Amino acid sequence: MNKIIISLFLTGLLFGSGPCIASCGPFLITYIAGTKKTISKGVMVYILFSVARISVYVALSLAIFFLSRFAIERLLGGLYKYVLILGGGFIIIIGLFMVFGKKLEFNFWQSLYKNLLERDKKSIFTVGLIIGLLPCAPLLSILSYVGLISRTWLSSLLYSLSFGIGTFVSPLIMLTILAGIIPRIFLEKKAIYSSIFSLICGLTIIFLGIQLIWRAF
Questions:
Q1: Where are the domains of the chain?
Q2: Contact in structure between 19 and 172 (CB atoms under 8 Å)
Q3: Percent of the chain, pLDDT > 70?
Q4: Of the candidates 119, 102, 90, which has an alpha carbon nearest to the alpha carbon of residue 27?
Q5: Are 194 and 186 in contact (CB under 8 A)?
Q6: CA–CA distances in Å: residue 200 to residues 25, 27, 197, 209
Q7: According to the 3-state scheme, what is the secondary structure of 117-147?
Q8: What is the pTM of this model?
């Protein structure tokens, strides 16, 4: 059992150094830099996002253990399109908030801005869940492996956690720290540079959201 835990942790390290950076990096880095997070707040965003993503990995591996991979693939296949559309729309809204900020004085806009961007823990956790619910083929294979080799639900839990922790300890942590440094450089310059940078980051996040929706069709 210990050998399996260690091997899955190492697999998570490799996975976190490749596919995870490609799938999670663009949003996280752009979001942290665009919202002018400090280094400590940027790391907290990464932790919260990762906890949400890993919780989905655990849930999927347990579901495979109880139901089988075939059943889960059918379930995910049915939900995939809707998760892409809703998830993409949610990410686009975050991007719009970054572009316009508090400039729009509608009460509804101000309320959403405060809850989704200023108090953004729920937003980051939600995006983490969305990314976790859209596993790539290699990830689904690993979670299937975990579900199939597990003799009990507890072993499935431990195996998926060890893999998830491995993905957490990835170079993406250093990139989020770097993303927390970038806003300071712009804040030391003229305010217009900071505004332009936020605009670029917001538009980038909108583009990422559109890409998710596009994948649904």
A1: 2-214
A2: no
A3: 77
A4: 90
A5: yes
A6: 16, 13, 5, 14
A7: HHCCHHHHHHHHHHHHCCCCHHHHHHHHHHH
A8: 0.80
